């Protein structure tokens, strides 16, 4: 018989069997785990791996530029750098913060605190709008975890000039207000998506271009505004604000024969390059968003409607009752008492009583139609967002007080843009035109996509003979004969109208004592006006002056005179006076 195995051999065989069993058990468990992972978690883990290994970047399209009517850039885009840090890759935060602070002129302590507070984040923005020279200095640091990215930055080379027309662009590159918002799709363009394959550290190994599309830069925009006329307007508006200490002011300059807005400004203003430093309320374009009770500046439009309705003639004399008259229980006063006046005299002397009598003759229905005919109570359709239609209540809500209030510019509210556009209709022979601020759309290469050279006629507001009577006979008299301030220009004749309106309370009926809206609108030269200008100053210091002729009239005269000289319009005053 063979010898029985020695105890040591039996122990070794037993040990081997146990180990083998354990190994097989472990392999079985591992195989089961792998099977579970493959079957139950396969899709989820594959998707996770795909997300970890693949990434994408954005090659932003360049936003299109905006130019004034003469091709001068008023908004553009610069490609600038931003500095960021990946905290997970920074070994010595203080050292990196010190190097960055020295090159970016920032506090190292602030940078270090920002990195430490972003624990768990892989991207901490340190500085944006970094110039290329500073970007080169950052590259020379060669510090682990510090990176540079390129991004487009919207710039406005003229600062606050045209701010309320241009608007602003948000951090995502989209227009937020004004023309930047209205034409965002045309200006924005289409970004390029860059897909990447990354390593475990999320570093890009290569760009995968097989599914990429090239970025398409945004198209350009040409405005009707003129930089030089805008400068003239803004400087004059600033001087007027400083002299009369107004709460706010606005101005518009238009070409009356095509509806082009050549300048539009509001005060106070803001800088679109740094719009976040200004209250949002300053960005509102009050020239088209904020209706106001116009006061006496409104009288020529009612006079035109009265002539059209046939209730008054130019030669008829109207008794203005020496400055005090009762319309039923309502008493109306004139600042300067007058007796018998023809229609021209009523407008030149700005008689409230004379206009009240004309309103009674017209009646509410004819008054209402006259207002609608000049575009009041409706949006005019300018390209800028936020335009108000003003407030002209339905005629059913008018009372006997309305009959005498509306002719003197009360109980209704109109925007400054509506006033300027309606005045254009008087001096351009009676046509109400759609105002516009955009002249053309261009491709990224500068070729014309669409041109807006043809004027858009909304309707005929007045017959030719009535418009000419008001333009040539009545409104020049306001400038030449009206008292309270000399508005005559040296080289040009002007037709215009003053307005000094009480400011109504915002939350209740009645008017704020001692508070006025001082307005003047003018057109020059008289025989064929090249420009219409409107200036409104809200709540000037009463001690400095508050009549529209004193506050806003000189500003309009200066704006028109300087702008006409800039446009090389020949002087007309000596020739016109010689023929009278």
Walkthrough of the structure:
This protein is of the alpha+beta class. The chain folds into 2 domains: 57-132 and 144-195 and 210-223, Penicillin-binding protein 2a (Domain 2) (Alpha-Beta Complex), CATH 3.90.1310; 227-274 and 283-447 and 454-578, DD-peptidase/beta-lactamase superfamily (Beta-lactamase), CATH 3.40.710.10. The protein is 37% helix and 22% strand. It has 19 helices and 21 strands. It has helices at residues 7-40, 42-53, 93-104, 108-117, 132-141, 163-166, 178-182, 184-188, 227-244, 286-289, 299-309, 343-348, 352-373, 400-405, 416-427, 464-481, 548-551, 553-566, 573-578; strands spanning 54-59, 66-67, 73-85, 124-130, 146-155, 192-198, 204-208, 220-223, 248-254, 261-267, 318-319, 324-327, 330-333, 340-341, 431-433, 438-442, 448-451, 457-460, 495-504, 511-524, 531-538. Strands 2, 3, 4, 5, 8, 16 and 17 form a 7-stranded mixed β-sheet that branches. A hairpin with a 5-residue loop joins strand 16 (438-442) and strand 17 (448-451). The longest helix has 34 residues, at 7-40. The radius of gyration is 36 Å and the shape is elongated. The chain starts with 6 loop residues before the first helix and ends with a helix.
